[in-house]
Amino acid sequence: MRTRGWSHWLYLAPALLVLGSYLVYPTLVTLYLSFFDARSAQYIGLQNYARIFTQEETLIALRNNLLWIIVVPALTVSLGLLMAVVFDRVRHEALAKSAIFLPMAISFVGAGVIWKFVYAYTPPIYPQIGILNAIRTALGFDPIGWLIRSPWVNNLALMAVFIWIWAGYCMIILSAAYKGIHRDLLDAARTDGANEWEIFWHVALPMLRPTILVVATTMTVFTLKVFDIIYVLTNGNFGTEVLADRMYKEMFHFHNFGAASAIAVIILLAMLPVIVINVRRFYAKEGR
Amino acid sequence: MRRLASHLTVFCLVLLWLIPTLGLLVTSIRPYEDVVRTGWWTTLFDPAKWASLTLDNYVQVIAQEGLGQAFWNSLVITIPASLIPLAISALAAYAFAWMPFRGRQVLLMVAVGLMVLPGQMTFIPLLTVYNKVGLSGTFLGIWLVHTAYGLPLQIYLLRNFFRALPHELLDSAFMDGASRWKIFRHIVLPLSVPALASLLILQFLWVWNDLLVALIFLGTSPEVAPVNVKLVGLVGAYGQDWQLLTAGAFVSMALPLIVFLSLQKHFVQGILAGSRRG
């Protein structure tokens, strides 16, 4: 279709209007406000940023975000990969996949309630109604406050919820890629006497690498955005706070728009590599 | 032997994934006295208890705790917040896919960059403006916010889908004198129904399951709060009344689960298309 005149702007106008006023403009304002005080009245330079890297609360949030980024994408993608490969070998594959995928339809809040109940704790003299502590006491151990014991137990307990939700997502995408690998290739390796582990490691995995990278970046972005799980399960108490929850608190509990804006900018900066990767991949494909 | 190992692994994984949700469902229909005294799993193996199962918890959360109203609010929020962005992104994607114009690549690249923009970067300025013009706490306000957050990915995916449509078909229609609008309405849109359906489902689930955006732009007042906001309120108010919390959680999950189970194929297609972005 040849283009003349300006009618394409009619098609673009609503989108550009919304993107400009709801995403681009606020982003610039937030950047600007991050250099101002709590009430956006006075310019204070980099003080908001300095506070993020010196205050105990925000340092804990930074640590936790780092912990999440190191642990969660790796575990979620590995589990998804394991499922994609193993499920390929059983008869009721579709059914099994649905079960793993199901949590994706559930909200983080719903999932939060589900897992808060899994982690439920009562003092040892009472019967345990949370299944994890019931298993522990049945095995002769004392029940644990899964969401209270800091820093490892409770943070890992929160991460488990994320993994429970997103492993299915990784599985679906990796499974599609795995099925895209030519069966003959795997069979040829088999007849050459390679065992299943070697086939997976030396044949399948290299071919899956691009997909793994895409899924891993997506998981990293979602990990950085995590808010609801923590809001519902611990509300950031007991050393479990992450940046997104901290920002919410700065915004609504302390009404400190400067500090909240600075935290938002930090989250953005952490995501910047992913944004750059996305744009560059787009450019490589379409740039010309 | 190897087959057995695979089947066993799959069985364990599936069990592990289903048990938490099963616990929720069972607890939501148990009476309070049982919930505090024994684990939910005891009910499964004790047929004598099955007679005591009840829907009272649901009646209480829906009628007395206001979850029914919240469910309705969620519908009022979610349906327009899914349809509006789809309409806007389809128009834009059509221009991006089939109308060469100056600056097209740059604009598209901006959209790609905005796909992973954290919402946090927009909350404070938007809320400040919303408070001034009276849009905070209104359905219109949150429809527009969800529209904005959904647009970049939708524009990009639809544009890719539109571009993959047969070139000759559109060109010959154009040669025959069909207007751009006619081609859009009568060729592009009908051919794209599967893609549109996938995106609609994804956006529906995304908006329905949202908490943060609703907390910020709608707040907790019962006339507007969606189920998730209400549910978080219940968690705060009834921390240990598991029979109520589980029933409430199931109410919030029911519709997404139905949508997911009945339209799983579209959902999966949408996810796969999304993963091929960029």
Structure description:
The complex is a heterodimer of chains A (288) and B (278). Chain A is mostly helical and 288 residues long. In chain A, 72% of the residues lie in helices and 0% in strands. Chain A has one domain (38-286): MetI-like fold. Chain A has twelve helices and no strands. Chain B has two domains: 2-54, no CATH class; 61-275, MetI-like (MetI-like fold, Orthogonal Bundle). Chain B has 15 helices and no strands. In chain B, helix 5 packs parallel to helix 8. The longest helix of chain B has 32 residues, at 67-98. Chain B starts with a helix and ends with a helix.
Structural class of chain A: mainly alpha
Beta percentage of chain B is: under 5%
Secondary-structure element order of chain A, as H and E? HHHHHHHHHHHH
Biggest interface: chains and residue counts?
Answer: A-B, 94 and 102 residues
Can you tell me the overall shape of chain B? globular
Looking at CATH, the homologous superfamily of the largest domain in chain B is: MetI-like
Instruction: Please tally the helical runs of chain A, counting DSSP H or I stretches of 4 or more residues.
Output: 12
Number of helices of chain B: 15
Give the tally of β-strands of chain B: 0
The parts of chain A where pLDDT drops under 50 for at least 5 residues are none
Cα distance, first to last residue of chain A? 20 Å
Q: Describe the biggest sheet of chain A? A: none
Q: Based on the structure, what is the oligomeric state of the protein chains?
A: heterodimer
